[in-house]
Known about the structure:
Helix content is 49%, strand content 16%. It has 222 residues and is an alpha/beta fold.
Amino acid sequence: MIDIIAIDGPAGSGKSTVAKLLARKIGYAYIDTGAMYRALTLKAMRNCLDLNDEEEIAGLFMDTDIDIVPDDSGGISVMLDNEDVTSLIRTPELTDKVAYIAKVAAVRQRMKDIQRNIGARQKAVFEGRDITTAVFPESKFKFYIDADFNERAARRHRELVSKGIDISLEDVGKDLKIRDHKDMTRRIGPLKIAKGAVVIDTTHMTIDEVVERLRKYVSRAL
């Protein structure tokens, strides 16, 4: 599967920025799979669902249409039932609830099918938590982007502050530890390093350096 580049990694590792820039550099579409779980979370919140009720969540998803549409600038539009919700799915309140949606087995299975369908129609860089292990394990290009925990927390803190969110570095670190634990220990689709994946520690690297390293790996086979 030469047309799919699969990238996994924890929050704050830089994988989203790297994936987006890499896609732009090599002329691929960029697909943020985490945004798809956020879109379903938004719908669950709008419908006031009990997020601990996995059957309700799975049932809601069966009557939901989610898609990722790359735009001309290298970004994406996140479509929920034909509504563009790209700007509505990044609130701290919603972020706190995504894990409830992401742990539902029926949701992850259907998301995997949708993501594979998206990949079948275009050359793309996919980034998320289980892209290299569950969605495209057969991809020739599998990367795991990581960084030191303190560096990841600092990056996440800078990102939130730049968006006008008033939060301390300490609180960001606490939230990140909780998020890491949920991502790495969930029963279905946990975050882990896939067999054969290239691991890149970005702690002491610039974004441009990381993108160039990935580009060199990919260019050898393209």
